[in-house]
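Example record used in the benchmark description.
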Amino acid sequence: MAYIQLKINMIAEYAEALGDMLSGNGAQAVTFLDAKDTPMYEPKPGEVMLWPDTQVIGLFDAADDMQGIIERLAQSKLLKDEFVYVLDPLEDKDWEREWMDNFHAMRFGERLWVCPSWREIPEPDAVNVMLDPGLAFGTGTHATTALCLRWLDSLSLSGAKVLDFGCGSGILGIAALKLGAADMLGIDIDPQALQATEANAQRNGVADKLTLALPKDDTQYLADIVCANILAAPLRELREVISGYCKQGGQIILSGILVEQAAEIADLYRADFSINDIVVEGDWASISGTKL
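Model output (structure tokens):
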């Protein structure tokens, strides 16, 4: 099936309204992109962050009456009669196949692989986490996840109790279980993330070692290993909560942190942890330490 993209630049205040208009005119998908290459890293829980100048892209069937759609849009209060837009045809491809081809099995450290279900397992005797890209964050492709997975692979996890704070897809906790951990608690603010974690745990045969909770749940859990791959702002705000889950002598890894934020976060957690050297990959950093 052939598609065409309608691209319109809009100030952030009205970008979502324009996206709704595109959907109302038959767009099969709407995407928001930064029109001025301005990075934004710290959305609040549940908040949709848009850039000061946003490109709104509507994906339409190539057979749609694009001229009629543009004329209807021009009648809105958001857009003027001579608003600037771009129409880009998309090559007719098997988009599902194209998407799947972008994901490969990835190795982290000495023992651990993360493999999408449609790929052959490169090393059957290794520790293989089967995980497909989905709604929740965490497939191993992002540097923050990779930093945490390599750290977990470097540990002796036999019999350990593991907390995955902000579990997303559950990749860190599931990897820990497959590396020998005894049980894992996954916490996330998003119920969809908890569902994704449970589904991935079942796929990997470790669901019987898994407990899931929302942050508001009164969960009593003292972990040997705490993973918090979230963002700098919640790592600051929730320091006491996150630290409180780690037992004395236990270990922690913090990620989702930009390099320029790492020293500040490390200093905050020194109140409770002996901090190791900060590890950097590209623009991102991880911080690990041992509970005092």
